[in-house]
RNA sequence: AGGCGGGUAGCUCAGUGGGAGAGCAUCGGCCUUACAAGCCGGGGGUCACGGGUUCAAAUCCCGUUCCGCCUACCA
């Protein structure tokens, strides 16, 4: 296809955009409509529309793309379902910031106008991250792109809400939430930052109602005592056992409240007595529920004390604290103040101190859903890789709390519930009702809260495939094959998709969950803008090319460990991309000037037979590793094979055929080298889509995209055991000679004469047949091969197996140095030998170790002994000469 | 506080029961007509420490220690 001459080094920029466009134009990212092939589907973890591509996305999507591209080549009907998330609070914040810059705010603009502005913003910037995913090479079917606020997905959200409500699995109730008095919204636990803070622990005297004494309570928040409805102590605490049924008087307000007994109270902390404020503390709320305590809200939504705070009404919560402390002091009720460090929640956005406040919220009753979601993993229907995350998953599912799904913001799915002002009942419906379902009053108004962002993303695996309609995609691709995500959203997203998928589809949403690591900087720190240690994937792709970047991520993606990304590592793999490029260049230079592939030829040389056998083996290993989500393993296998077997050995050996006159050998080599290069490209394609496509399209005899080619496997290649053993011998011989050359600092220009004393005639034949290779690759000008050959006088010796290799160094050999070299070698062998002999002389080992292991050790000991003896013999020869 | 992960070559990390590996760095030799972003060769590790299980431990168990992360409601 491509005819222009191939450049000396690979230039990613020139080819990446070209091929991405080609793939899209040729519909290569789309699944086939009706297909015999087995379906394979991944739904993308939808990035926030506000987002730009960061390292986490890059890793996440690279791994998904590797899976999708591999599966397609392996013969599956693949759908990678893409889309974005409306990201309620994050997006609302971005647009609010815009408004602030224009000197206005959302309240001034009004709800409808505001939402319109968000849509406008989305239209303008929402495609940013999608295009960055394209840069990364993601093979998503973009014709199916979805957005959580789309019409279709919104319909799914309403459907789910209404059905859960009708089933009694959604309810409205009082709950303690994290309230930001400045932003005026509830915050998810995730959105609360905890900072250690220097504060004080105040010991306050609560007098007993009957006047017989007092009890001391320790607190960091004295102002909340206005809402106290009990004091709790541990039932085992003997100090307070006599106070059963007694009341204390709330300081300042002088109101009697009960002393209750609850195991939650830590006897060792403070005085062992805990004030209970159910309306302003999450724990107290729980305890209050168990003891049926009244909940008194004394702080309003602005953080100001309300009418129930009595004399403190109108004071800011912090001012109130000061005032109350003064009053307690005056009344002689402040026993002690000690410095204390505690973690206090702050709004992640404006850093205002969070106020836990009691309010009415919507909830999903999760227990029944969680039970099934837990069982699905317990039963192995869904498998989590690596499986240590299963424990974390179970722990959460087994201790799950009801899920608060309402948010007091504007951007999101507005809850489809209407309150009736006439009868006070709630109407929940998929479409906007005209009147109350209970009393027919038309005086109804819709809930102003919107749903938690995770509510719509919980439906993602089926809503994107068309649910609640019965679509062919849903029938084909649900349950999806795999979900690839980071552990940080295991609870928020994965767990909820499991619950919703099982409930509404009657089946798990995905068979496998692959949890990958976090990408950190070279020091292991989390990348963040404030630390300034962010590596921008887009910059990396610009500098080193997408393929090198992707390969780096895959090569570092070992399970269960974070990735420390370093520039050097990327550079190393960039070299690998270039190596592949140059290997291809070499191949092209040595093909006859023809556009078509050379005629089919059987492999003619040992090298030909060997490389084909190796491709078969490696292909199976790579496929196995990808199927097991061992991305680093798969990448490593490819790297090792392509560089150190295909390039270092096969291409070097093929030169003999290419540069020689034997047309038959040449034809066979051309055929083999094309097969080997083609297979290498296919193995690498899932990791490096661009460079492999670029080379593939230039290869003679290929048709269409490499994406449509079949992934290699061993059934398509010979299994030539003899080629493997012969090649091992040959490589050992050559390495032996090279080793001596290296140690003696012999430049390649200095050819040497070599005598090879083999162990048997088989070896003699093998080496003789390939003597030209030995001569070329080890720079030998004269090679003598035979069994029982004598060591030449001025020669250095290496031993491989039964074979002695003597390199003649007339006038160059330092006898002393050579003897030293051999002695060192013998010492090393004897150390190994000793270990083997120790095992073999251990009755326990011979008794209990498996036979094959014992046989291995025996064989090893024999080999080592033979080698040692040979070296010793050669050493003796040298010593005789010396004398 | 609890949970999780980790400590292996100078650096970054693979390696889950049978003689320790890779990349980078380093040292020596090479512009050998695909590639100096390259080729050939070398050196370098008490696998954190201490115990245990086993014929056999980097690998499994217990303890110690250091580092990192996540969760948390000690007022």
Structural class of the secondary elements?
A: alpha/beta
Q: What is the count of DSSP helices, taking H or I runs of 4+ residues?
A: 28
In angstroms, what separates the terminal alpha carbons? 70 Å
Mean pLDDT: 88
Shape, principal axes of CA atoms: elongated
Tell me the major beta sheet. 7 strands, mixed
Kindly estimate the percentage of residues that lie in beta strands according to DSSP: 15-25%
Unreliable spans are none
Radius of gyration over alpha carbons? 37 Å
Instruction: Summarize the amount of helix as a percent range.
Output: 40-55%
Number of strands: 29
Describe this structure in words.
The chain is α/β, with parallel strands linked by helices. Helix content is 45%, strand content 18%. The chain is built from 28 helices and 29 strands. Helix 17 (546-556) crosses helix 18 and helix 20 runs antiparallel to helix 21 (663-684). The mean pLDDT is 88.
In short:
This protein has 883 residues and is α/β, with parallel strands linked by helices. 45% of the residues lie in helices and 18% in strands. The chain has 28 helices and 29 strands.
Properties at a glance:
seven-stranded mixed β-sheet, alpha/beta, RNA-binding, single chain, elongated, about 45% helix, about 900 residues
List the helices and strands and how they pair.
Blueprint: H1 12-25, E1 39-43, H2 55-73, E2 77-81, E3 83-84, H3 88-101, H4 106-109, H5 111-125, H6 128-135, E4 146-147, H7 151-166, E5 170-180, E6 185-187, E7 192-208, E8 214-219, E9 230-233, E10 247-250, E11 255-261, E12 273-276, H8 282-291, H9 317-330, E13 334-347, E14 355-364, H10 367-378, E15 383-385, H11 388-398, E16 403-404, E17 406-407, E18 417-420, E19 426-428, E20 444-446, E21 450-451, H12 453-457, H13 460-463, H14 472-477, E22 480-486, H15 490-505, E23 510-516, E24 519-520, H16 537-544, H17 546-556, E25 563-564, H18 567-589, H19 606-627, H20 631-659, H21 663-684, H22 689-698, H23 721-743, E26 752-758, H24 761-769, H25 771-778, E27 780-787, E28 795-800, E29 803-808, H26 815-840, H27 843-848, H28 851-882
Parallel strand pairs: 1-2, 3-4, 9-11, 15-23, 22-23, 24-25, 26-27
Antiparallel strand pairs: 5-6, 5-14, 7-8, 7-10, 7-13, 9-12, 10-11, 14-16, 17-21, 18-19, 18-20, 26-29, 28-29
The protein binds one RNA strand of 75 nucleotides through strand 8, strand 12, helix 8, helix 11 and helix 18.
């Amino acid at each position: 296809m491509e005819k222009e001459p191939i450049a000396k080094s690979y230039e990613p920029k020139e080819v990446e955009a070209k091929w991405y466009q080609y793939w899209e134009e040729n519909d290569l990212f789309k699944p086939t409509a009706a297909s015999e092939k087995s379906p394979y589907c991944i739904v993308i973890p939808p990035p926030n529309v506000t987002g730009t591509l960061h390292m986490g996305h890059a890793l996440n999507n690279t791994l998904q793309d590797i899976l999708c591209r591999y599966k397609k080549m392996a013969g599956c009907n693949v759908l990678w379902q893409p889309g974005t998330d409306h990201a309620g609070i994050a997006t609302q914040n971005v647009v609010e910031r815009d408004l602030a810059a224009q000197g206005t705010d959302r309240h001034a603009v009004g709800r409808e106008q505001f939402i319109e502005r968000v849509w406008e913003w989305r239209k303008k910037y929402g495609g940013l991250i999608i295009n960055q995913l394209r840069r990364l090479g993601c093979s998503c079917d973009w014709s199916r792109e979805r957005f959580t606020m789309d019409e279709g997905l919104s319909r799914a959200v309403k459907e789910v809400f209404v059905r859960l409500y009708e089933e009694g699995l959604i309810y409205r109730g009082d709950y303690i939430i994290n309230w930001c008095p400045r932003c005026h919204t509830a915050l998810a636990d995730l959105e609360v930052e905890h900072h250690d803070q220097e504060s004080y622990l105040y010991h306050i005297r609560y007098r007993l109602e009957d006047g017989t004494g007092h009890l001391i309570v320790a607190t960091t928040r004295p102002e909340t005592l206005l809402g106290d409805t009990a004091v709790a102590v541990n039932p085992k605490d003997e100090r307070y056992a006599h106070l059963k049924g007694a009341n204390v008087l709330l300081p300042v307000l002088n109101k009697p409240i009960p002393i209750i007994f609850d195991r939650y109270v830590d006897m060792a902390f403070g005085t062992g007595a805990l004030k209970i404020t159910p309306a302003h503390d999450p724990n107290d709320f729980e305890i209050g529920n168990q003891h049926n305590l009244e909940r008194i809200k004394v702080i309003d939504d602005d953080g100001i004390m309300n009418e129930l705070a009595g004399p403190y009404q109108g004071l800011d919560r912090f001012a109130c604290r000061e005032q109350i402390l003064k009053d307690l002091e005056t009344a002689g009720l402040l026993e002690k103040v000690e410095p204390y460090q505690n973690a206090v929640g702050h709004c992640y956005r404006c850093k205002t101190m969070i106020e836990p406040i009691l309010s009415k919220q919507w909830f999903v009753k999760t227990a029944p859903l969680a039970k099934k979601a837990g069982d699905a993993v317990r039963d192995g229907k869904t498998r989590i890789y690596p499986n240590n995350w299963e424990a974390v998953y179970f722990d959460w599912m087994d201790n799950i709390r009801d899920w608060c799904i309402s948010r007091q913001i504007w951007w999101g799915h507005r809850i489809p519930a209407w309150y009736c002002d006439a009868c006070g009942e709630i109407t929940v419906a998929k479409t906007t009702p005209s009147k109350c379902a209970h009393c027919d009053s038309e005086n109804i108004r819709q809930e102003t809260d919107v749903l938690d962002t995770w509510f719509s993303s919980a439906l993602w695996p089926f809503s994107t495939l068309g649910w609640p309609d019965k679509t062919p995609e849903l029938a084909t691709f649900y349950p999806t094959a795999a979900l690839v995500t980071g552990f940080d959203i295991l609870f928020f997203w994965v767990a909820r998709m499991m619950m919703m998928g099982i409930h509404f589809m009657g089946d798990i949403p995905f068979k496998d969950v692959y949890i990958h690591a976090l990408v950190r900087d070279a020091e292991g720190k989390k990348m963040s803008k404030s630390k300034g240690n962010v590596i921008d994937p887009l910059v990396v792709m610009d500098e080193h090319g997408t393929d090198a970047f992707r390969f780096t991520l895959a090569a570092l993606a070992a399970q269960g460990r974070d990735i420390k990304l370093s520039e050097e590592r990327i550079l190393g793999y960039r070299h690998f991309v270039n190596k592949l490029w140059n290997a291809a260049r070499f191949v092209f230079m040595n093909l006859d000037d023809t556009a078509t592939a050379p005629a089919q030829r059987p492999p003619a040389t040992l090298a030909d037979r060997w490389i084909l056998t190796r491709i078969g083996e490696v292909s199976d290993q790579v496929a196995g590793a990808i199927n097991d989500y061992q991305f680093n393993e798969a990448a490593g296998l490819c790297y090792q094979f392509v560089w150190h077997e295909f390039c270092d050995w096969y291409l070097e050996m093929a030169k003999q055929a290419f540069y020689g006159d034997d047309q038959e050998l040449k034809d066979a080599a051309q055929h083999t080298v094309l097969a080997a290069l083609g297979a290498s490209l296919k193995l690498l394609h899932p990791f490096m889509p661009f460079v492999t496509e670029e080379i593939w399209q230039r290869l003679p005899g290929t048709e269409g995209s490499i994406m449509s080619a079949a992934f290699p496997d061993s059934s398509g290649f010979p299994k030539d055991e003899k080629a493997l053993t012969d090649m091992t011998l040959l490589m050992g011989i050559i390495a032996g000679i090279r080793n001596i050359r290296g140690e003696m600092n012999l430049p390649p220009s200095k050819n040497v004469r070599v005598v090879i004393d083999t162990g048997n005639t088989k070896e003699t034949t093998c080496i003789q047949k390939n003597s030209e290779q030995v001569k070329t690759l080890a720079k030998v000008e004269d090679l003598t091969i035979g069994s029982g050959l004598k060591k030449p006088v001025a020669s250095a010796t290496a031993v491989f197996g039964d074979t002695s290799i003597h390199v003649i160094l007339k006038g160059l050999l330092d006898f002393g140095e050579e003897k030293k070299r051999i002695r060192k070698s013998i010492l090393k062998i004897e150390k190994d030998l000793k270990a083997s002999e120790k095992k073999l002389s251990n009755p326990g080992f011979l008794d209990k170790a498996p036979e094959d292991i014992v046989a291995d050790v025996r064989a090893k000991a024999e080999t080592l002994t033979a080698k040692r003896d040979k070296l010793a013999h050669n050493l003796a020869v040298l010593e005789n000469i010396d004398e």
